[in-house]
Amino acid sequence: MDYYRDTFMEINLDDLENNIRSFQSHYFQSKEIMAVVKADAYGHGAVQIARVLQEQGIRHYAVATLEEAMELRHSGILGCILLFGHIRVCDLHLAATYDCTLSINHIDWFKEALAGYVGKPIDVHINVDTGMNRLGVPSKEEFVQLLVLLSQTSHFILKGIYSHLATSEEENDTYYQLQLRRFASFLDGVDTTDLWIHIANSGGSIKEQPSYFNMIRIGLFLHGVSPSDHIKLAFPLKETMSLFTTVLQIKTLPRGEKISYNGIYMTTDEQEVIATLPIGYADGLDRRIEGGRVFVNGDYGEIIGRVCMDFTIVKLPRIVEVGSIVEIIGPHISMEEYAKKVKTNTYHAFCAFSDRVVRKYIRHRQVVEIVNKRLNQTCREDL
Ligand SMILES: Cc1ncc(COP(=O)(O)O)c(C=O)c1O
After folding, report:
1. pLDDT given for residue 143 in this prediction
2. Which end of the chain is more exposed for a tag (fewer CB within 10 A), N or C?
3. Rounded CA gap, 294 and 244, in Å?
4. Does 122 contact ligand 1 (Cβ within 6 A)?
């Protein structure tokens, strides 16, 4: 496979399989799992992730855009693919061709859709707004009107009703409870037989919910990461993603040398071991990682000076060979640690890694696929 720089992400599909199996066997509320694989499965590769999930019996997926759904279908993903986002009415025929399930987020959009579409029936879920105040039907009146409109058409088929939580990862669950109550009052008096009813994301999934909420939508948990320190599962998950680079150049510098742009770091030891790594902010490495840790040959090193576009400089406790593997995120440095250091959440940190970083997929402890999006190449061993 062609890639020409030793900086890569490793995504362990065995760990993903372990995570989903753990979830399926230990999850205390028996609810259908919808796997949220939008944004390229948070940078892990939606196709590769969904293929493993499909093998493990997952039948529902969620994405944000039509392109994301089309990509999954082109890769042989079956079952329901729900789009959270908005699509143009003129693209509804594509949603039908690709057998997408659409969200109705607003009544005006749906009226336009009814007026403009007369094709193959399209499955829909209604998204009601219970407090996220981003997308979703805002009032019970609109919701009831929608139910009436849906009962009068054969072009759209109601399959589910959902809402989205704004604070599920927080310790205080007052707002979570309010959203649950609002969701229940939307549903009050509605015949929910044969409908998927769902509100919980990863954070919400571990909180108690009424049994007629029969689906959960999980994204972050698939990758073995918790949305916050307050959210603890009763069973272990494994972080599936590691990020590695290599030592490109190494030198020993005397005291008083400035490192990288603007010289914000100056060597203070008599002999400082300084290594340059081929990874930078164009790869999505956050500039705020300065002062953060890397792991090389059994020791931790420290990221020093400004992260450059293509390179990063670290201080190491001892000389290592050029070509030594450097862990940025992995078994010794968790994604939580990385995200905390760069003052963001793990969702954002995952999505920030660019497609300049080659993705290597591990299955049955071997590299089975390497994706280099810059060369538009995928090299896949037969699994
Ligand atoms: C509407 C919706 N549902 C579910 C999820 C999944 O959230 P999580 O990754 O916390 O499980 C997301 C992710 O942002 C979302 O936007």
Report:
1. 98
2. C
3. 9
4. no
Ligand 1 nearest-atom number relative to CA 84: 1
Angle made by CA atoms 347, 352, 356, in degrees to the nearest 5: 140
Tell me the CA–centroid distance for residue 168 and ligand 1, in Å: 10
Distance CA(66)–CA(105), nearest Å, equals: 15
Collapse the DSSP code of 152 into the 3-class scheme (helix H, G, I; strand E, B; otherwise coil) and give the result. Answer: coil
The CA distance from 43 to 368, in Å, is: 18
- What spacing in Å lies between the alpha carbon of 49 and ligand 1's midpoint? 16
Domains in the chain with CATH codes: 31-223 (3.20.20.10), 241-380 (2.40.37.10)
**Strands, E, within 24-137: which ranges?**
32-36, 60-63, 80-83, 100-104, 122-127
Measured from the Cα of 220, ligand 1's closest atom is: 9
C-alpha of residue 145 to centroid of ligand 1, in Å: 27
Does residue 383 have a pLDDT over 60? no
Does the Cβ of 198 fall within 6 Å of ligand 1? no
φ and ψ at 310, to 5 degrees?
-120, -10
Active site residue 38: yes
Give me the mean pLDDT over the 276-297 stretch.
98
> Can you tell me the distance from the alpha carbon of 87 to that of 66, in angstroms, rounded to the nearest whole number?
7
pLDDT tens by residue, 215-243: 999 999 999 999 988 888 888 899 999 99
**pLDDT for 381:** 60
**Beta-carbon contacts of residue 226 (< 8 Å; ≥ 6 apart):** 202, 220, 232, 233, 237, 336
Of 31, 38, 315, 341, the active-site residue reads 38
- Residue 217: CB within 6 Å of ligand 1? yes
**Token pair in block for residue 117:** 């579409």
Tell the residue number behind the tokens 């020791």, with chain if given.
Answer: 299
CA–centroid distance, residue 218 to ligand 1 (Å)? 6
> What is the pLDDT, as a whole number, of residue 232?
83
